[in-house]
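Here comes an entry:

___
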Amino acid sequence: DWEKMVGAIQDYIMMLNFRYRTELRTKGVTYFNSLAKFVDAHTVELTDRKGNTERKTADKIIVATGGRPRYLGLPNEKELCITSDDLFSLDKPPGKTLVVGASYVALECAGFLNGLKYDTTVMMRSIPLRGFDQQCAEHICRYMEEHGTKFIRGCIPAAIEQAASGRIKVSWKPTGGGDAMDSDEYDTVLLAIGRYALTDECNVAAAGVKVQESNKKIIGANNGVGGTEQSSVDNIFAIGDVLDGYPELTPVAIQAGILLARRLFAGSSVQMDYRNVATAVFTPVEYGCVGYSEEDAIKEFGEENIEVYHTAFKPLELTVPAQNISGRGDNASYCKVICNLKDEERILGMHVLGWSSGEIIQGYAIALKLRARKADLDNLVGIHPTNAEVFTTLNVTKRSGDDWQAAGC
C-alpha cells in the first residue's frame, strides 16, 4: 500500500523535526525558521516565509546547509521529473520508473523500487558508485540486474517530454558522442545525479568565503583552530555536505561538528579523521566498507606494495533453503581486506557485500582506527556461523590466482 507507506514516512519525518526543535529549545538554542544570507563576515540577514527580515551578528559562524539535488539542465525536467527528495512524497505509486544516476542514492532508490515490483531502469553515464571500490560496485550492479533491475550504461538523457500516452518520454544518447538516439516512456523519472551546495543562496561571497566553482561547496583551508572545517575566512567554518571533498554522510557531519565545537570552545585539538570512515550502501545486496578502495590503495601505495585477501561466500542460513529461494544464487556475498605489504600488512581497507554488511563494517572500523594488521585478523576468533567471521579466515590473495570461491561453512 504505497499511500499508507508514504503517510507513515511523512509522519515519522514530522515527528523527528518536532523532536529536534524541542531539543534545541531545551538546550537554550534559539531557532530561526528563515533563509540566512551573509551581509559580511559577521552579519547575516534572515528572511522568514512571510518576507520579514532581520539581521543577526556573531563572532563565529558555521555553515551547515547540506545540499540540494542537481538537475540535468534540460527543458521540462523540473515539471516532469522528481528527485530522490520527492520519492516519498508521491501521492500515488511510481509505476514504471527510470532512475538517472549511478550514485548510492540512485542505486538504493532503484533497488527499493524493484523490490516493490515496479519496473525499474537505471541510466548511468559512466561508472557506478564513483569513489567506492569498483569491484564491489560492479558486484552490486550485477546482483541487481540478476534480480530484475535494468541498466542503460554509457548514456545520458537528451530530451524529456510529455508523451501522447500521458507518460514521460525520455530520449537518450551515448556519452561517448555520436547521433545514435533511443527512447522509452515512463510513469516516473527520478534524477539522482548528485547535489549542489546552497552557498550562492546564502551569499557566502559577501563574507569573502571561497567555494569550489563546479559544485559551489566551501573550500576547507585546513589551518587554524578550524582545521579542515576552516573556510578562507577566519571566523567562518563549514561542516557536512557543504564542505568540499569529504564524505557526504550525516554521521560525518555530526562528528565533525562535535569536534569543531570542542576546538572552538573547549580547548581541544582533536581533528576530524575523514579517511577511516565506515559507511554502508543499502542496495539489494548490502555493501559496507571502511578505508581505502582497491583503486585508491594502488594509486597511493603502488600495486606491487598491496596485498588483497578476498573470498566469495554464501551465508550459512541460505545453504539449506537455497533451492527454494528464487535468485539467491551461490556465493552472492563477498569480502576483501586490502593490506600494505611495506608496513607489516597494515590494513588499508575492508569491504563486505551481503546481509547486515553495515553492522559488520561498523564493528571492524575500530580495527583500522587502531592500525590493525592482517595478523590481528588472523588471531581473532570468529563467531560461527556469521558473515563477519569470514574476515577472520581469509587466506586467498588476488595475487596468487587461487580459487577464491568459498566451499562449505
Notes: The two ends are 39 Å apart (CA to CA). The mean pLDDT is 94.
